Q: What sequence folds into this?
């Protein structure tokens, strides 16, 4: 059992301490945006932000996460309007979407520490694997997110989800 803060909410997870944080988030907390990719922390699909640092949740145990603050893709922005999310949409840097949550989380952690990263900064910080090959757009996307975060560029409008209508009204 572990007590930690996930997406600004204290939670208690009743799993073994050696359970990877990834599975605790997905199975016990029902936060399925964090994806399983490789299980070794190399692909970045499971990236979350722990105490301000991007970390692969597949290699961090629940016991190691106890008492820490964890942010998942679901907790990045309640309205899906984080500058990184806006930039990914504006730059069309999403293909299949499987790696996207991990890329977004890694980029958000980078921008929280460096709001104006160079191409070299981005390539050093974003080591995630994308099998669709969105890499050419990543530098442009993350630099745009930095400009949005600094107020130098307006954010991209995000798609509005359809609303349910009641027949006959």
A:
């Amino acid at each position: 059992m572990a007590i930690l803060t996930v997406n600004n909410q204290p939670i208690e997870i009743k799993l073994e301490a050696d359970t990877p944080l990834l599975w605790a988030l997905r199975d016990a907390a029902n936060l399925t945006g964090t994806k399983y990719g490789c299980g070794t922390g190399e692909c970045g699909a499971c990236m979350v932000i722990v105490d301000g640092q991007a970390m692969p949740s597949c290699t961090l145990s629940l016991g190691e996460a106890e008492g820490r603050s964890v942010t998942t893709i679901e907790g990045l922005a309640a309205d899906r309007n984080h500058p990184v999310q806006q930039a990914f949409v504006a730059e069309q840097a999403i293909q299949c979407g499987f790696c996207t949550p991990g890329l977004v989380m890694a980029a958000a952690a980078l921008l929280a520490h460096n709001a104006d990263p160079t191409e070299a900064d981005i390539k050093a910080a974003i080591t995630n694997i994308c099998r669709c090959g969105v890499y050419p757009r990543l530098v442009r996307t993350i630099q745009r997110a930095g400009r949005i975060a600094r107020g130098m560029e307006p954010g991209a409008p995000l798609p509005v989800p359809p609303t349910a209508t009641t027949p006959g009204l």
Residues 6 and 70 are 5 Å apart (CA to CA). The radius of gyration is 17 Å. The helical segments are 21-28, 62-65, 73-76, 83-90, 100-113, 119-125, 135-149. The first helix runs from residue 21 to 28.
